[in-house]
């Protein structure tokens, strides 16, 4: 039976209820909110009193002095009052105590992506710029900081002798870790099954630019001599017996950023149907701007796979909070994998664990879960411009941290960046090494 953390507060708000409910995912224990002081005092396991003044005779437990953010209904710039504790950056520091910051408010601020509701600068794609985030500015983007805070809290509880069951929870945390490789299939085939005019244009472009090796591989692929990257990936996953998720871009019309093969293509349909995986929707760039297209594309994919489609990841990570999450819920999406940046690797919400989405504008939890990712090949290659050695080091550091906190390490790869060309062969080899190293 899992131990229970009891949180006491004199009042309740949707924001407080939300963040307390998320602790069960972070700590992998039962967490309950109570407004009954007697019940709090009689509780035999770990306690947390979330009150300004602790009553006399209070039993052993944590005491956190609340800041205002969890009591508020509006959205405004917050006094973050940065400091450090247990060698970790902290927010909402305001008193001298064993836990000198409002860990509940800080966790809410990061998980809800509160700062993305404030005025901010956008990047060249119109997305929230990662350089605006407190995690980037304070250099903790590389950490699942929310989990590290609560892990440190549990470790202190054990050191104080407040409950042996928590030793077992801490010992078991690494066992709850898993790696989940995922694939964004923006362009299903690197060479084949494209419109003839596009094949000819690509061949001419590569010939004129002197990329004869690429041109020759395209020629070989068209006569089935050279394997497509998508088939190579399937072989690797079969070899390592690793589960995966493929997110398919099935826009019905091509656009500047939507260059997929039409979902009506028989070759595209066969590829999707023959890929042994969990299927997810990759809502198009157009669908990020037009709500009805999400349901249209979901229905197109559902007709191909002949099963329900309830998971998604936004193409180009071009979602805007909270509007796109509302659209996804309306379209029947139950779990989304878009929480990360399309411009840098790291933990956008400072967590590596599935959690519920909170709409800060409406002050309510939406019926959609968030599965964050922290590593994407496109970021390493094009945005951070890393060498393959540096990219492997970055991936290994993430993997170790996520395993430490018992999280889920979600990575993204694109099949069209895994071709056996001179340009991408080093990245193809790196990805094969990742599967061998982290596949277990």
Explain this structure.
This protein has 16 helices and 15 strands. It is of the alpha/beta class and 440 residues long. It folds into two domains: 167 residues, no CATH class; 228 residues, TIM Barrel, CATH 3.20.20. The strands form four sheets. It has a five-stranded parallel sheet with strand order 9-8-7-15-14. The longest helix has 17 residues.
What are the SSEs and their pairings?
Layout: E1 4-8, H1 14-27, E2 30-34, H2 37-42, E3 47-50, E4 62-64, E5 83-85, E6 88-90, H3 103-111, H4 134-137, H5 145-159, H6 165-172, E7 178-185, H7 196-208, H8 212-222, H9 229-240, E8 245-248, H10 266-274, E9 278-281, H11 285-289, H12 291-305, E10 311-312, H13 323-331, E11 335-336, E12 355-359, E13 364-370, E14 375-376, H14 377-383, H15 388-404, E15 408-413, H16 425-438
Parallel strand pairs: 1-2, 1-3, 3-4, 7-8, 7-15, 8-9, 10-11, 11-13, 14-15
Antiparallel strand pairs: 5-6, 12-13
Keywords, please?
440 residues; alpha/beta; 2 domains; five-stranded parallel beta sheet; elongated
